[in-house]
Amino acid sequence: MIEMKVRGIAVDPNLKTPSVILTDEDEKRYLPIWIGVAEATAIFIQLNDQILPRPMTHDLLKNIISTLGAKVAKVVVNDIDKNTFFAKVVLEMNDTGERFEIDARPSDAIALALRTHSPIFVAEKVVINATIVDKEKYKEEMSEFKKFLENVSPTDFPG
């Protein structure tokens, strides 16, 4: 497994579909995962340290996990099949160390990982089959992506 971090949210200009971009530590590999607008908003809000007056669903889930005496040990994007990504949230009980793997959409797992400061891992087969490796080829795209992030707010996503 390879640990990755969230690089940001991008929107496909043609399809108007958001994606979360994961990258490895050296930023040599990029993994775009297409996600829903609500999940993109949840990730974007957390990436920008925005505080909302009421908890969003992922904040609620974080609070429930903590209240029950557990923590998010990690999230894992563990599979891809026909361009659909799969993930697991690994919970660990604080008192016993017992672990539970919960099936999740990658977008929800990532939103939760950001809120709990938990590591995000991607299985090798997903990295091999779905990452973009040629950094030079995508340098301009990433520059445009950074410019996009500077001027976007949660209200830009229709809800």
The end-to-end distance, rounded to whole angstroms, is 34 Å
Helices and strands: which structural class?
alpha+beta
Total separate domains: 1
Widest beta sheet: strand line-up: 3-2-1-7-4-5-6
Question: Strand-and-helix sequence, N→C?
Answer: EEEHHEEEHEHH
CATH architecture level-2 label: Roll
Count of runs of 4 or more consecutive helical residues: 5
Shape: globular
- Looking at CATH, which topology would you report? Bifunctional nuclease domain
The major beta sheet can be summarized as: 7 strands, mixed
Oligomerization: single chain
Task: Give the overall average pLDDT.
Answer: 87
Provide structural commentary:
- By secondary structure, the protein is of the alpha+beta class.
- It has helices spanning 37-47, 57-67, 106-116, 124-130, 139-150, and strands spanning 2-11, 18-24, 30-34, 70-81, 84-93, 99-104, 120-122.
- The protein has a seven-stranded mixed beta sheet with strand order 3-2-1-7-4-5-6, with helices on both faces.
- The longest helix has 12 residues, at 139-150.
- The radius of gyration is 16 Å and the shape is globular.
What tags apply to this protein structure?
159 residues, alpha+beta, Bifunctional nuclease domain, 5 helices, 33% strand, globular
Q: Topology, pairings included?
A:
Elements lengths: L1 E10 L6 E7 L5 E5 L2 H11 L9 H11 L2 E12 L2 E10 L5 E6 L1 H11 L3 E3 L1 H7 L8 H12 L9
Parallel strand pairs: 4-7
Antiparallel strand pairs: 1-2, 1-7, 2-3, 4-5, 5-6
